[in-house]
Every structure is written in structure tokens, then in C-alpha cells.
Amino acid sequence: MNISSRILIQISVIIFFISCKKKEVSKSINTNYVRVSLQNQINTDFEFDSRATDFLMFSYKEKYPKYYNELIKRSYNIPKLDSFNIVSYSFQKGKLLYDLLQNNYFENEADKINFQYYINDTIKMIEKTFNHQVNAVSGFKDGKQVIILDTQNNNNYGDDEIVVFDEKFDFNNAEKLNDLPIRSFNYEIASYDTIVNFKRKLQILPSPNHPYSRFFINSELFKKYALLIKIKDYWKGKINIKNTDYEIAIQGENKFYNNIILFRPDSLKNKNIGKAYNRNFIYNFNDTIKISNNLYKIDSIYDDMSMLKLKKLTINTPFYSYRLGYTIKNFKLKSFDDKEHKINELLGKKYTLLDFWGTWCSPCKELTPSLVKLNKELGYKVNIIGVSFNSPLQDSKKYVSDNNNMNWQHTYSKDRVGIIRDLNIVSYPTFILLDSKRKILYRGTGKDALDYIEKFILEN
């Protein structure tokens, strides 16, 4: 065998092993990760919590007067109004605070502390120039409010639509709000070593009495100019795992901040499940999610929000969660006579209903007769465990005593540590229906949830 033949064989062997190695790596990636393609679209199938969709625009004139004067100098073609302010919202707080610091626009030390909190999301691109902020003219003319949103981010208010609101506009009327025009606008986000452009859809309306106002606006004089951005689009995807379709939706400002992830079976998409029920399917990055009996970590998302990555996990210990379809811990509960019980000791029937309530909660008290009726008619299939939260023990005892037919197990929790925190109880009354193995069959709040639970128990 000559030298060139030996070299050719050696090269062939090396290529063979490299090829095998690549196949092994590829197989490993496909096995351990699931990638979900996402597309931006108008929100129709999902309801999102307002913390990810509603953003308050307010005037910097009070908090950062030097910076506000710069905004005024840069702005032009503002129509003649009786009065106006430019109001703003930044979609990347770290960049805004960096610019304020660099130009000596900070007015107090608290701003510098906030800057350190937000700095992580723009650590490599902080010195670049990009349009992270949306601005609008908010003013008044002849008793009507005039709004001009700078959709093109060019400080020119002569090439944008003028929207006029009458004083009598009913902001509590959901139908009227839905009829407001949907506008397009752009903003940019610095993501590590890349600047990403986002094209979003929104509605904008006056919001002088928004509950967030007190955090940003001190003077009543400036509240009347405040506006609310309502984001109408989101990122949506779908995957199929073991013949089950799952819908994924992500809403928020960007991959770093103020976002929520909804991950739910496709079979629920036509049901009017609402925000309370949606909490069963809300996740954040690094959360663990159960899909077709396998556990995945919500691993990462692309800078432009076009792809979500899930990483398959191998966990040998029991995994507990507060969400629908998961098993809860065998929590310790204290009875009214101060005895400690584990939930397993209180099961014993086909179903167990956890009722989270308080003596301070009017909707809870209104549903007492319904609970009494359920216990009387279906007590052979379900036992109820009441968990009184944040009520003086004597008040809870008296309430149960005064309602003699509340003859089920009663427990109490003084604070959020333990079952209240771990089961993510944020509304009252909350009802959680368990099977005999502590698996959550249903959870929800209020009368609709209790009605559903009663129907479920009857039919199963």
C-alpha cells in the first residue's frame, strides 16, 4: 500500500468518526430540546394579565425636567392646543436610566439604585443609540383631550394621526374600548450584542386615574395627561407532543422584562376560560412544565421572540406544582383546635375540595350556602377542607359556629408561608378540586368555579 493510499484511508476513517460524532450530537439535541416557532399576531385566542399588556405613559416634566426640556426641543409640528405635555414609556428601562445618568438628568439617589436593577438587560449595548421609547402628545383643546402618538419615532407629530376623546367617553365600557383603533408602532431593544426591532400593535387612551399613577406622578396637575398603552398583539406557537397539541403564547415588552408565557392544551382554545383559569397555564423562564407526562424546563427564547426552547428534564424526585394536572405536596394544616394534620390524613373520599376563604372576604361569605348545599348533597363523594386565611382565629371559629351546617374540616393559615404561597393563592375564594392522590383536577375562583366543580363531581 503506497503512502497516498494510506493517507486516503486515514482521512476516510477520520471523516467516518467525525460523521458519527455529528450524528450523536444531533440526536442528543433533538432528544433533549423542543423548539417552538412563534409568530407575532393580534390577540384573539388568549386573555393576558394587564401587567403584560397595559403600560402607563406619563410626563417626565415633573421627575426629569432637564430631560423633558430636551424632548420638547426635539419635537416639532405639534398643533396649537390649550395645554399639553409629552408623555413617554420606555420599553427598556436600563437604557433610559443610563441615558439619564450620562446626561446628569437624575434628580435623586433612588434613580441610581433603580439603574443598577435594570442594567443587566443592556449590559453590552448600553452605549448604543436606539429607539427604546414611545412618545405621545397628550393635550386639551376646547374641553376635549387630543392624543398624537409618535408611531414612527421621529419626533415629528405632523405625520401621525390625531385622536380626540370627548369628556363623556366611558372608559369602563369594554365594548367602546375594543372599538378604539389599533395602531402600529416600532421600538428597539438591546439584547446582549444585538439590537432588535419590534413592530407592535396597540390601542391608546386617556388614563388619568390609573392605579399605577401614584408610583410615577406626584402632582394632580400632571395626572390628567397620563395615557395608557394597551398592547394587542403577542407571539403565538403550537407544538405536538405524543399526539397532543399545545398552544404557546408569550406577551410582554421583550425577552428580559415584564413578560408572561401561556402554555395550554389546544383542546381548551374554544372555551371561555378567562384570566383566572389561565393562571393554571402561566409560566416564566426556567419554570418546569409537564407535557405528556414528561418534564421540561422553559429554557430560553430568541432575541426577536421568534423561537422558544424547551429542555427535557430527568427528575427522579416527585415534582409538585399548583397548576391544573399536577400533584400538590402533602401539606401540613392546622385545625381550629390547633392540631396539625397532613392533607393525606384528610382525604378518604373520591374527591377533596380545598376552599380558601377569609372572614374579611364578602364573595367567600356569599358562597357559604352553596358550599353547605354541595356538602349536603355530594358529601358522599367529596370532602371539603376549608382554609381560612389572614383572619383572626376567633373570627373564623365564630363564623363557622354561626353557620351550623358548615360541618366539614376547617383549618387556618396566618400568613402566606406554606400552602397559600406554594399553591399560588392570590384571589378569594379559590377552589381546588383534588383526586384521592392529591392531583389537581380543577382550580378556579368565585361562583363559576364552584358551579363547575359541583357539575364535575355529579357527572364523574
Write up this protein.
The protein is built from 13 helices and 24 strands. It is α+β, with helices and mostly antiparallel strands. The protein folds into 3 domains: 94 residues, no CATH class; 178 residues, no CATH class; 128 residues, Glutaredoxin, CATH 3.40.30. The strands form 4 sheets. The chain has an 8-stranded antiparallel sheet with strand order 7-6-5-4-3-10-9-8, with helices on one face. The longest helix has 30 residues. The protein is globular and about 75 Å long.
Low-confidence stretches: 1-29
Give the termini separation. 78 Å
Strand order of the largest sheet: 7-6-5-4-3-10-9-8
* Percent helix range: 25-40%
Given helix and strand content, the structural type is alpha+beta
Shape annotation:
globular
In short, what is this structure?
The protein has 460 residues and is α+β, with helices and mostly antiparallel strands. Helices cover 27% and strands 33% of the residues.
Tell me the layout of helices and strands.
Blueprint: H1 3-32, E1 33-37, E2 39-42, E3 54-59, H2 65-74, E4 83-90, H3 93-102, H4 109-118, E5 133-141, E6 144-149, E7 162-165, H5 174-178, E8 183-191, E9 194-206, H6 213-216, H7 220-223, E10 227-231, E11 233-241, E12 244-252, E13 259-265, H8 274-278, E14 282-283, E15 288-291, E16 294-301, E17 307-313, E18 332-335, E19 340-342, E20 351-357, H9 362-366, H10 368-378, E21 382-389, H11 393-402, E22 409-413, H12 419-422, E23 430-434, E24 440-445, H13 446-459
Parallel strand pairs: 20-21, 21-22
Antiparallel strand pairs: 1-17, 2-11, 3-4, 3-10, 4-5, 5-6, 6-7, 8-9, 9-10, 11-12, 12-13, 13-14, 15-16, 16-17, 18-19, 18-22, 20-23, 23-24
Helix pairs in contact: 3-4, 10-13
